[in-house]
Amino acid sequence: MGSEAGWNFCYVVISMLLKESFMKTKQDYEQRLNESFSIELEQARLDLALIEVSSVSADTVESGQKEPFSAVFRSDNQDILEQGTYTLTHSEVGDLLLFLVPIGPDQAGMCYEAVFT
Fold first, then answer.
1. What is the distance between the alpha carbons of residues 67 and 26, in angstroms, rounded to a whole number?
2. What residue stretches are annotated with the DUF6916 domain (predicted)?
3. Which bin fits 104, alpha (ψ -120 to 50), beta or left (φ > 0)?
4. 3-state DSSP call for residue 76?
């Protein structure tokens, strides 16, 4: 295997590991409510708390399907992250690769939402 092929293989394995997180369901996130997560940025670390987990559809979920839900995270930093994919780190769960959307500030900080369908 050439060195370029080796790097491609490593990238695929790392991507799969990030995507195969233990947190896949609404219940997984509900168990982590009010717990801390962090994002390592180029110049700083952003600390977030998981503050809300809620269903995104009133429809019933068919057997074998995952329930669609959203998770809201809050940072006490008022600086706004751009909408995009970030690696959130949790001390017990490890790394989660999530697409976060800024949804605005509340009384305690800036909020971001991840939607799971």
1. 7
2. 25-116
3. left
4. coil
